[in-house]
Amino acid sequence: MPEKLNETQLLTKNWQQQLAESFNNIEDLLHYLHLSYHDLPVSVAATKDFPLRVPLSFANSMKKGDPNDPLLRQVLPIKDELFAYPGYSDDPVGDLPSSTQPGVLHKYHGRALFINTGSCAINCRYCFRRNFPYPDLQLGKKNESAGISYIQENPGIAEVILSGGDPLLLSDARLAKLFKQLSTIKHLKRIRIHSRLPIVLPARITDDLINALTRSSKQIVIVVHCNHANEINPRVIAACQLLKNNGITLFNQSVLLKGVNDNPATLCNLSEQLFSNGIIPYYLHLMDKATGTGHFEVSEIEAINLIKQVQATLPGYLVPKLVKELPGALSKQFI
Ligand SMILES: *Cc1c(COP(=O)(O)O)cnc(C)c1O
Ligand code: SF4
């Protein structure tokens, strides 16, 4: 029998192992947190189409024994997900009509977005793409060269955004190849990555990954996704430091979520902690109305009120832009 590893040892395993050993059922996660089914309105039925998935590195930052932990709330399937809230749908941001070809979304001027993979290291219950038909629309290996040709043929595109799912779940080899190919496109200025991995699975940020990304001649931007200061732990700080030290610009986007970060002190603390670690607050999104997420809704009026209080407290550069997505609009809408 191999010796049982303690938590610290588990967190030093490589990212693939940590990913494979993520929590994938409600019972194990509750047990780890010293909670029981009686503490929370959990729902196994809600996991049928969108399973529970949480890396230990993220769960490790939750407070044991606290059913209201803001990190737990983001990932725990509860009965509210099964209620039908009016105005909620499967494609709330109108991604499907703007899909130019499988895996490519070209909605905004100068920017094209690749849906590189449908997988994520964590399943966020509020995700706007939780009902997205990924098998049809992701830029699998098969469609990748068609996606690159699309950028080549459109000189107006200055920036490619790798998104998903989580593009940093692709192997180093695939990312290296993709970056190499994108680098040959003269009119392209920047490659941007939208990823939650530096926050939820920071072991993903390895020297080999940095090599794959920085071989490109383009400017590189990574937009991470962090909703609460408790998500920032020493492993996250080290990963972001490594990215920064290699000339990668870091921004953060958050989603405004009821019971997670819908108060001014939490939002201010998040901005402070991000900036202390080299990450600039970029967007605070009003949640998109995807089926199953209604219990996270913060109204637009409340959101405006919250951001005003943040503005009254922090320097302007620490106030994220409050935005919402309107299907068919030319950009995200500033509120
Ligand atoms: C959000 C988004 C972008 C990026 O928008 P920015 O305002 O530049 O951050 C680009 N394409 C699509 C389809 C998007 O949803
Ligand atoms: S990491 Fe992003 S895309 Fe993945 S489940 Fe969470 S919100 Fe959705």
Write structural notes for this entry:
The chain is of the alpha/beta class and 335 residues long. It folds into two domains: 7-82, no CATH class; 96-334, TIM Barrel (Alpha-Beta Barrel), CATH 3.20.20. It is 31% helix and 15% strand. It has 13 helices and ten strands. It has helices at residues 7-10, 15-20, 26-32, 56-59, 70-75, 134-137, 141-152, 172-183, 197-200, 207-214, 234-245, 264-276, 300-311, and strands spanning 99-101, 104-108, 111-115, 159-163, 190-194, 219-225, 249-256, 280-286, 321-324, 333-334. A hairpin with a 2-residue loop joins strand 1 and strand 2. Helix 12 crosses helix 13 (300-311). The termini are far apart. It binds pyridoxal-5'-phosphate and iron/sulfur cluster.
The CATH homologous superfamily of the largest domain is called Aldolase class I
Low-confidence stretches: none
Count of DSSP-assigned helices: 13
Q: Assign the CATH class of the largest domain.
A: Alpha Beta
Distance between the termini: 58 Å
Query: How much helix, percentage-wise, in residues?
Result: 25-40%
